[in-house]
Amino acid sequence: MGKKILTEHIHTPNIETFEVYRKHGGYAAVEKALKTMTPDEVTEEVKKSGLRGRGGAGFPAGMKWSFIDKKTTPRYLVCNADESEPGTFKDRYLMSKNPHSLVEGMIVASYALGANTSYIYVRGEMLYVIQILEKAIAEAYAKGFLGKNILGTDYSLDLYVHPGGGAYICGEETALLESLEGKRGNPRNKPPFPAVKGLYQQPTVVNNVETIAATPWIINNGGDAYAAIGVGKSTGTKLISACGHLKKPGVYEIELGVPVEEFIYSDEYCGGIRAGHTLKAVVAGGSSVPILPTALILKTAKGEPRLMTYESLSDGGFITGTMLGSGGFIAMDETVSVVKNLWNFSRFYHHESCGQCSPCREGTGWLERILHRMVKGEGKLHDIDLLVDVAKKIEGNTICPLGEAAAWPVASAIRHFRHEFEWYVNNKDKVKRGEIYQEQLVNA
Ligand SMILES: Cc1cc2nc3c(=O)[nH]c(=O)nc-3n(C[C@H](O)[C@H](O)[C@H](O)COP(=O)(O)O)c2cc1C
Ligand code: SF4
Question: Which part of the chain has CATH 3.10.20.600?
């Protein structure tokens, strides 16, 4: 069994209450940080741990904290709990089962940043999570872990839960800040980055739920102990939300470095592909990352076993690699049409584009329309190259990465499954009758 940090107590009855959480060592990191460490020492420990942001980009958390302009007040910590990326459902699991782990992390991280007001921005549809968090926060206030002069120290913190604006784009950190300020969730041009001008134009750190919830363990056990788990620059553990045609879909906490093959097929994790079917493709890190066929998700192009790490999953770049992203692991068996799946993703991105930049606003519409005509049996052969062309014109030409998130899945699907796109064009009658492409696969 791999090391459990975030989910160690997740099945303990009533762990969502302050009393039980405290009984299992909860809030010890707040006591240690506030009473025995300076804010810079807390940041240093997180730096040492090598903890990387778990929201998708994998930026080192301690380094992000150290960029914050400490001469300017007030400063803010904002937790990104918007979690709208298709295939990703780990944050809501953690927050609903063990809300105090996030509240404790918020106190530790806010102390390190010198923030006296912090926010948890939760996807608006997840009302039940908002209610669970509000209850945990009220308990923490009542026990003296939030509010004025926490544990008798001169540090004070107010923590608020804010319901999200109901759009995927509100998960992009600067759109989130706009939304938190009460405006439409449009991403901002960068620079300035939030560490310099964030919420209300003040220095702000935005971190994912899982990133923040990992910090109490790091403070209790030391950054070196965290860095000793995992492989290379992929330290610690990661929550993976696994879905699709797996025997045991669910949220798993893995030590970074588990081979992908073990994650898919071993009984400790997903238990393999549903009976009678064969794995065809995997989207390893949420809908925005490149899709890979079975051979390339299990082994790199060099023939080495692919590991669940930032580096190994991206080995081969966008030609033969993908990304760990937010850890939304979608496994597809041979019954899935990659073309139809891509059309579905494209509809999503077109719908969610905020419309500020033409390449994304118009390009996502083009992608959706071209794919739609293909799955209706009205595609033309040159549509395949047209899709690649449109995707290329979006990439690198937009204010925020939603454009790339829409483009990368297109480019990778065509690179690895071109034959399937051609089948849709060359078999219009079958497509119109509702048949889908059937990949002939041998058991992996
Ligand atoms: C369209 C879009 C949606 C995003 N949604 C989320 C989200 O729901 N949760 C999240 O933590 N990060 C999301 N991100 C990434 C954030 O912009 C940001 O990188 C992250 O919150 C930083 O936290 P971390 O460093 O702890 O990963 C999204 C990015 C984009 C472009
Ligand atoms: S890339 Fe798309 S979502 Fe991002 S700012 Fe531009 S139009 Fe909006």
Answer: 232-333
